[in-house]
Write a structure and sequence with these properties.
327 residues; alpha/beta; Rossmann fold; eight-stranded mixed sheet; 12 helices
């Protein structure tokens, strides 16, 4: 297992879905039981006085919130580690409990599905695009765990595909701690004995708020001038929190300034009527500004900007994971 250091000096495992320690499979019956148990726990938590809840959350990095009132990139990463991979500093009863609840389980499923769709489409695109650089643009990317695991899975499954490829990961995020960890994780993965050793991969953090898509347009123009192959991803970010206007503006920018074969992989929250009760209760307790958008509404927004579904979405009780291509 590979490790990297956080901005707080914690040494964390680097999530590698090709490593047995991060193997994860669960059936619908297990997921339903986890959901029921999580709901019982969350109801008890919700009945605690607000001051006590804030005190608990302030001492638990796994549910730490940023200035925008939703979980930050590092807290999401910690939940994706799974209970068996938590470092000693996070081995308390509360942290282990949170890592077993339906929210953390669904984050792990979402990461797995993001990577699955990304790999499926890159395997089709890269062999016919020659030696053009591969640029992975991660909107609200945090640690870029989906981008890193896409490379890990591609390199493990198709070892020759990336050997001559120049690869750049661009994380567009207002956060700094999560992208810093992501860059250190990449360095550890590319070390002499790391699973990405020998590849040419660079990591770039661009401080960017998706409410202002102009900087995205500037980056895309640059990548187009480089004749790059572009894959865009947004896990737990733009399509889960952005307004209609912001999503449309970003998709329009991507349509106008990205190469024809560009794909977008992203996560969309289930509509309110279909959402897991845990997510509804969690939104009520924490006032997280999430959007219960649902697949139909998202397809309408994407269609307005010239994007369409490239495949059936992958689903868990919280999210749809979708892939868009240009019409």
């Amino acid at each position: 297992m590979v490790y990297a250091e956080t901005s707080k000096g914690w040494e964390l495992p680097v999530i590698d879905l090709t490593h047995p320690a991060f193997g994860f499979d669960i059936d619908k019956n297990e997921l339903s039981e986890i959901s029921r148990e999580s709901l019982r726990w969350l109801k008890r938590y919700g009945h605690l006085p607000g001051l006590l809840r804030r005190l608990i959350s302030s001492r638990l990095p796994m549910i730490e919130r940023d200035n925008h009132h939703w979980g930050n990139g590092m807290s999401a990463y910690l939940q994706k580690l799974g209970p068996e991979n938590l470092p000693k500093i996070l081995s308390g009863i509360w942290s282990r409990r949170i890592s077993r609840l339906i929210g953390a389980v669904c984050l792990r499923l979402r990461l797995r599905d993001m990577v699955k769709l990304s790999v499926e489409h890159l395997v089709k695109i890269l062999p016919v695009t020659g030696n053009r650089p591969l640029c992975m643009v991660n909107i609200g990317g945090g640690t870029a765990a989906d981008s890193l695991n896409t490379l890990l899975t591609l390199h493990r499954t198709f070892p020759s595909l990336l050997l001559k490829q120049r690869i750049a990961i661009y994380v567009l995020d207002t956060d700094t701690a999560a992208p810093l960890f992501g860059s250190r994780a990449l360095a550890a993965l590319m070390s002499n004995d790391g699973p990405l050793a020998g590849l040419r991969v660079s990591f770039h953090h661009i401080t960017r708020d998706w409410n202002h898509p102009e900087s995205l347009g500037m980056l895309l123009k640059h990548l187009r001038e480089m004749k790059s192959v572009v894959m865009v991803s947004s896990e737990g970010a733009l399509f889960e929190y952005g307004s209609d206007e912001v999503i449309i503006a970003n998709l329009a920018m991507l349509r106008d300034h990205s190469p024809p074969e560009t794909i977008i992989i992203g996560s969309v929250i289930q509509r309110f009527e279909d959402a897991d009760p845990n997510l509804i209760l969690l939104q009520s307790i924490t006032e997280m500004p999430i959007r219960f958008m649902g697949l139909n509404m998202f397809e309408q927004l994407a269609g307005q900007t010239g994007w369409s579904m490239a495949a059936s979405p992958l689903e868990n009780p919280f999210f749809h994971v979708v892939c868009l291509t240009k019409r």
